[in-house]
Amino acid sequence: MASRGLAVVAVSPVIRSRPIGPSQREYANGAALVETRIDPPALLDLLQSIEAQFGRERQGQRWRSRTLDLDIVLWSGGCWSDAQLTVPHREFRKRGFVLGPAARVARDWHDPITGLKIVHLEYRLKRRLDHPRRAP
């Protein structure tokens, strides 16, 4: 990673999660905190080249099984948006398989949209899933 301009600062434990979409298999999910001077679009290109080295093909069905899926969830620069990339990741606040590992490596990072710490977003999601509101 260092040869590609990335310094890995922390890595979470790996957790298992159920798929979103039609895939039938479980996934292994984790989070890494990395330092880099690479801007988000160039970082996305780098991550997609790493996915390709692991055999990922980006064609066909959106939710199909894949060998590797690397996402930029948050960025120390706050928000980024262009035609290929939106940071923070649009769905991360709704996904325990993202928030759980992220809270292990960056619990005090703030979501630039809500202002909440990652650990608080994780707590809110767990609470919502454990205690769903009943319809009137």
List keywords for this structure.
single chain; 136 residues; alpha+beta; Alpha-Beta Plaits; two-stranded antiparallel sheet; 6 strands
Characterization of this structure:
The protein is an alpha+beta fold. It has a domain at 2-92: Alpha-Beta Plaits (2-Layer Sandwich). The chain is 28% helix and 14% strand. The chain has three helices and six strands, in the order ββββαββαα. It has helices at 40-53, 96-106, 118-130, and strands spanning 7-11, 15-17, 27-29, 32-35, 80-81, 86-87. It has a two-stranded antiparallel ribbon with strand order 1-4. A hairpin with a 4-residue loop joins β5 and β6. The termini are far apart.
Strand order of the largest sheet: 1-4
Number of strands: 6
Find the CATH topology of one domain.
Answer: Alpha-Beta Plaits
> How would a textbook summarize the main sheet?
2 strands, antiparallel
Task: Compile the SSE list and pairings.
Blueprint: E1 7-11, E2 15-17, E3 27-29, E4 32-35, H1 40-53, E5 80-81, E6 86-87, H2 96-106, H3 118-130
Antiparallel strand pairs: 1-4, 2-3, 5-6
Helix pairs in contact: 2-3
Characterize this entry briefly:
By secondary structure, the protein is an alpha+beta fold.
